[in-house]
# Entry
Amino acid sequence: MRLSAYFLPTLKENPTEAQIVSHRLMLRAGMIRQTAAGIYAWLPLGWRVLRKVEQIVREEQDRAGAQELLMPTIQAAELWKESGRYDDYGKEMLRITDRHDREMLFGPTNEEMITAIFRDNVKSYRELPKILYHIQWKFRDEVRPRFGVMRGREFLMKDAYSFDIDPAAARRSYNRMFIAYMKTFARMGLKAIPMRADTGPIGGDLSHEFHILAETGESAVFVHKDFIEGDWQNREVDYDGDLQPLVDELTGKYAVTEEKHDPAMADKLGADLVGARGIEVGHIFNFGTKYSKAMNAVVTGPGGEPVAVEMGSYGVGVSRLVGALIEAYHDDAGIIWPEAVAPFKLGLINLKKGDAGCDAVCETLYRAVKDDVLYDDRDDRAGVKFADMDLIGLPWQVVVGPKGVAKGLVELKSRQTGERQELSLEALVNRFGA
Ligand code: 5CA
# Structure
């Protein structure tokens, strides 16, 4: 992409409405614009990151055996009356009336809809297990939307739903999602800590939240210090094997959200207990037959008897993750994208547009790298170009100036470490070429 043609409205000043660094930087880097309280348009640069994050989530869901579908954003109120949640959900639910005076709503989550789809189409235990998911916009009329995409009213969520014949099988589905979450966040360069959590309006008693520790996090959390010091790499996992030992290992130490905190643990763990703040990027639930009983999602069991299916649901805050990533990866100059989610891998700065040598080198590199390069071909001062490039945080910057070109060299800078090295054009093409 050529910056001269790209829609990238960066801001020099800090927007006053933004209280936390990720919100500030997303506005300044031209990634999002607010269109109404807690509702954002994703501009081209932000949209690229959102899609990268979404794709990692999707790949890890698929790998864990979940199947993607797409349910609508607008739902009929009847479904929610069946489960009893139409009244329970209260003011957070955006209620809509259509032209025939039918009660509709903008979905805050999809347990009811997926349960109805399942019950109408699956009749036998032989078709189980099933894990179905979609990545779709949700609406929750939050009392206090804030911090940009972190707590929006409209936000993108991945929500998966599992259906099993008995509690042991449901636990296996839960474990699959648990591990898929660890892998998903690790691939993005994030250290997510699984914590025992409350279930709120979703229900059930087995539940974990996945938190990224950050001072700006909205949740108070209590974790064993080993979690903070330890490291989870993106390990190879056999999803058909027994995942329980690995889940046990990852939940073996104390880590809870405030609601689940036992004050007695402070004495027990002493200095090993750390009170911190976390950003909840995922939340998984096993709620047994809460919805299947209420909505009659019943299959015939091995002996021909009717069995209400065991269910769980599994959410990832896809749009929130973009904010969480910036909270984890930034400095005073701007964002520092991990490569896996960067909008472009390479930023190309032409220091002397119009200079035949610089233009030629830039064009060669631009064509070689193709979709993964943002080429600053604007007629601007070098200082402006450097500042914008640091602000938008592409992992690699290539600086092409007349002095280097005369020696057949260009400069490569790592956004993360600030390290610079001089390389030949050929070496760069080999390294970054598509
Ligand atoms: N049905 C279940 C699981 S699919 C559910 O809705 N869970 S949830 O309420 O915990 O939401 C799942 C994830 O969505 C959360 O972990 C969080 O990362 C994200 N999320 C929730 N509310 C918001 C919001 N207002 N803005 C941005 N992300 C949100």
Remarks:
- The mean pLDDT is 95.
- The longest strand covers residues 273-288.
- The pocket of 5CA is lined by residues 109, 111, 140, 142, 151-152, 155, 157, 159, 202, 280-283, 285, 313-315, 317, 319-320 (CB under 6 Å).
- The longest helix spans residues 167-187.
